[in-house]
Amino acid sequence: METFDCIESRKSVRKYDKKDVPNEMIAEIITAGTYAPSAGNTQEWEFIIVKDSEKKKKLSEASLDQNQVREAPAIIAVLANLEKIEMKYKERGKEVYSLQDTAACIQNMLLATHDLGLGACWVGAFDEEDVSSILGLPGKTRPVAMLTIGFPLSYQPAEKSYRIPFERLAWQENYGQELKWFMDYSRRSRFEWKPLDQQIEELTKRLEKLREERKGLEKKESSLWSRIKAIFKKPKE
Ligand SMILES: Cc1cc2nc3c(=O)[nH]c(=O)nc-3n(C[C@H](O)[C@H](O)[C@H](O)COP(=O)(O)O)c2cc1C
Questions:
Q1: What CATH number is associated with residue 121?
Q2: Are residues 206 and 134 in the same domain?
Q3: Ligand 1, atom nearest to 64 Cα
């Protein structure tokens, strides 16, 4: 998927098919996470993959009984190794960088998940002590998020969640100073969410066009073959 399309079309998915998420895909998602930047390249992130139903049930209870935690075929808990980052950057490392680094890692993972055709939700509302105990975390290892992952059910809410237009969030040089050039740029999203039947109709048309093109190419191919055969059949002079 093209980068910008992937960023724009990603959305939180909370309803999943029961189908297992292959470990091969989980490996790709974690790899994407580890390509994120981190303060001083400390890479203090760690991961626990949970597929066990009993454990997922406990994790759901520790996260306000959120259904997707119980129902997702796979969960990746993203942890911050506070000892590693604190050793390098003291208090700021422990309090700030640990969260910034793991957040960058998580976003990479969410994009990779989406690119692989999976759906995911970042779950941050949980009791840290309970989650630490369920996952058997050693001291100084903080659970930052749980990513619930699965193949999305074919029915998902059509709308992408609302985004505040950036002219209300971005300023020029000083806080509150309007971006003069903002209106020069189209605000139309590169990714437009369309109703399912419209998407199917458009894809069917594209498919028909591709079939036509293939027919044309097959004709060309067979005429080229005839010419090649004719050359080989020609008696030597
Ligand atoms: C730090 C953080 C914590 C979140 N915690 C939860 C959560 O506990 N449960 C949940 O359903 N979604 C959670 N979300 C997902 C947000 O609700 C979601 O990203 C937001 O509504 C925007 O929707 P979108 O992801 O579809 O663009 C969390 C997201 C972030 C970044």
A1: 3.40.109.10
A2: no
A3: 8
pLDDT digits (tens, 9 = 90+) for 204-215: 998 999 999 999
Residue with the smallest CA separation from ligand 1 atom 1 is: 124
Residues 123 and 39 in one domain: yes
Could you tell me the residue range of the domain that residue 215 belongs to? 194-237
Q: To test ligand 1's pocket by mutation, which of 121, 127, 144 has the most ligand atoms within 8 angstroms of CB?
A: 121
The closest residue, in CA terms, to atom 9 on ligand 1 is 123
Each residue of 156-194: pLDDT tens digit? 655 678 888 777 888 999 999 988 777 666 455 544 556
Residue to substitute in 12, 68, 127 for testing ligand 1 pocket (most ligand atoms within 8 angstroms of CB): 12
Average pLDDT, the chain: 91
Scanning the chain, the segments in alpha helix (DSSP H) are 3-9, 23-34, 53-61, 67-71, 82-92, 98-115, 128-134, 196-233
**Residues 58 and 125 occupy one common structural domain:** yes
Is residue 228 located within the same domain as residue 129? no
Counting DSSP H helices and E strands in the chain, the numbers are: 8, 4
Domain boundary among 94, 121, 150: 150
Structural domain total, the chain: 2
Number of neighbouring beta carbons within 10 Å of residue 57: 14
Which residues neighbour 141 within 8 Å (Cβ) at sequence distance 6 or greater?
46, 79, 80, 81, 82, 83, 132
Query: Which residue, of 126, 150, 174, is where some domain finishes?
Result: 150
* Alpha carbon of 125 to ligand 1 centroid (Å): 9
- pLDDT of the residue at 164: 82
